[in-house]
Write a structure and sequence with these properties.
There is one protein chain. By secondary structure, the protein is an alpha/beta fold. The protein has a domain of 75 residues: MurE/MurF, N-terminal domain (Udp-n-acetylmuramoylalanyl-d-glutamate--2,6- Diaminopimelate Ligase, Chain: A, domain 1), CATH 3.40.1390.10. It is built from three helices and 35 strands. The strands form five sheets. The chain has an eleven-stranded mixed β-sheet. The longest helix is centred in the C-terminal third of the chain and has 27 residues. The chain is flat. The model has no long low-confidence stretch (mean pLDDT 94).
Length: 325
């Protein structure tokens, strides 16, 4: 519901987060933690509950709803239409631009507006979506899919990896959960390697970014808006949730799991199967679940093992001692 009918002719062209919105944007507030951003937003319109309408700054149209995030998601679907590869058009679209010495395997698809740098190789059945820009001497493996992405030079993406698919974002509504459109990109800088069957989600609003020379194993998941620094290493089955910030030179052991909105400092190491639920300082080695400094985790594990052995021996002695029986 529009709180002031005088705002009915206001032109809204995009959606944007509270802190980034401008006069032509519509935004929303569903979490009181961002109330300060609401009070200073430059948005042209905002979805809020009736209780929060009084906090909307002057000049911003108030759209009152019981489901602000769901309303935002519906607006995003209406205002931001995905560019597609038209059905029936050639597999390599005429509007795609291929530089010299590009090799294209059988069945590969390259969408309109895509740019493939010189010396790159696109293997069989790979899909390069509309508008994707790829640098020189890149390699895309068979069956890989790349969309909404910008790749630097010498990037290698192995078979069946998925780069730029929508990240996991949903809003609750009376009709059940609805998808929140993802509007950012994936940026892979120079010399990044992405293993087979790995998924890197496009950003929800900001871009998902992977820094230079970072090497990612097979079967890794990187969530939307995550930023990974340079020279990182990720072993298989690493799972990084959305909006995580990873410094330069961080290593992840196999099966490490990282909760959302966490910062991992430069040079840190996360042990295999660790479950990180809070920020990790630079240079530290963490392990365990929940993860903590590795020395502490090992000490605690050793203490538990000693207690278990001691209690086991005590029980055994009581069982065999007639006086203790």
């Amino acid at each position: 519901m529009l709180a002031d009918a005088g705002d009915a002719d206001r032109l809204i062209q995009r959606v944007a987060p509270l802190a980034r919105a401008a006069a032509g944007d519509v935004t929303f507030l569903s979490d009181k933690r961002y109330l300060a951003d609401l009070r200073t937003t430059a948005a042209g319109a905002v979805f809020v509950t009736e209780a929060q309408a009084c906090d909307v700054p002057a000049g911003c149209a108030v759209l009152v709803t019981a489901e602000p995030q769901a309303a935002y998601a519906r607006a995003a679907l209406a205002l931001h239409r995905t560019r597609t590869h038209p059905m029936g058009s050639p597999g390599i679209h005429p509007d795609a631009r291929l530089e010299a010495d590009v090799e294209i395997g059988p069945g590969a698809v390259i969408g309109p507006g895509a740019v493939i740098g010189a010396g790159s190789r696109i293997e069989a059945n790979a899909v390069i979506g509309p508008g994707v820009c790829m640098g020189r001497n890149c390699q895309v493996g068979a069956g890989a899919s790349i969309s909404f992405a910008l790749l630097g030079d010498r990037v290698r993406i192995y078979s069946n990896a998925v780069i730029g698919a929508a990240g996991f974002g949903v809003a609750g509504s009376r009709q059940g959960a609805i998808d929140i459109p993802q509007l950012g990109r994936v940026i892979l800088q120079d010399d990044v390697t992405v293993g087979a069957n790995t998924c890197i989600d496009r950003g929800a609003w900001d871009d998902t970014q992977i820094g230079e020379r970072t090497k990612i194993d097979n079967l890794v998941q990187i969530g939307h808006n995550t930023r990974v620094g340079r020279n990182g290493l990720m072993a298989a089955f690493t799972g990084i949730s959305g909006s995580v910030t990873v410094g330069d030179g961080v290593t992840f052991g196999g099966g490490a799991g990282i909760a959302d909105h966490i910062t991992i400092g430069a040079g840190a190491s996360i042990a295999g199967a660790a479950g990180v639920t809070r920020d990790v300082p630079p240079g530290e080695v963490w392990g365990g679940h929940p993860a903590r400094p590795l020395n502490r985790f090992l000490q605690e594990t050793a203490w538990v093992a000693r207690q278990t052995r001691t209690r086991g021996k005590t029980r055994a002695a009581r069982t065999t001692d007639p006086e203790g029986a």
